[in-house]
Write a structure and sequence with these properties.
With 162 residues, this protein is an all-alpha fold. It is built from 6 helices and no strands. Helix 1 packs antiparallel against helix 2 and helix 2 runs antiparallel to helix 3. The longest helix is centred in the middle third of the chain and has 31 residues. The protein is elongated, with a radius of gyration of 20 Å. Bound molecules: fe (ii) ion. The site of fe (ii) ion has 7 residues, from helix 2.
Amino acid sequence: MLSQAVCNMSRKLAQLWNLGFQAKHSLPDLPYDYCALEPHINVPIMQLHHSKHHIAYVNNLNATKEKYKEALAKADIKTWVALQPTLKFIGGGHINQTIFWTNLSLNGGRELKGDLIPLLGIDAWKHAYFLQYKHVRPDYPKAVRNVINWETANERYMTCKK
Ligand SMILES: [Fe+2]
């Protein structure tokens, strides 16, 4: 009785999930060229970060979503539950990475004005800086400050104030 209810519930969840879960994720284009943030973030880092690291998140997210959908369709609750942390981690990584690209700009670096509170994050994982800054990690946030997209931060702030 209980197992039948679980199966029915998982099939309904699978149907609902499929409604919003069909689309494959893709690597977003950058709003600037790989060389646009030089010298603060160099081309090898941008290439590695975007075309190797971020695409890995996208590919793993799509693969995990397929496994997740299959588990739901088979009412394989154990697998379904086991995949959830991975799905959250990879999905979160893809979203954070996508947002991070918009936090940078070749026109960045101006000083803050007014009551602007930046609503942005900086990717400070090793893959984001090590090729250029090596073990001198504190130099990375100093350099990134020169390419922060304050317009995007301001837009987010204004949206939050509404
Ligand atoms: Fe990253």
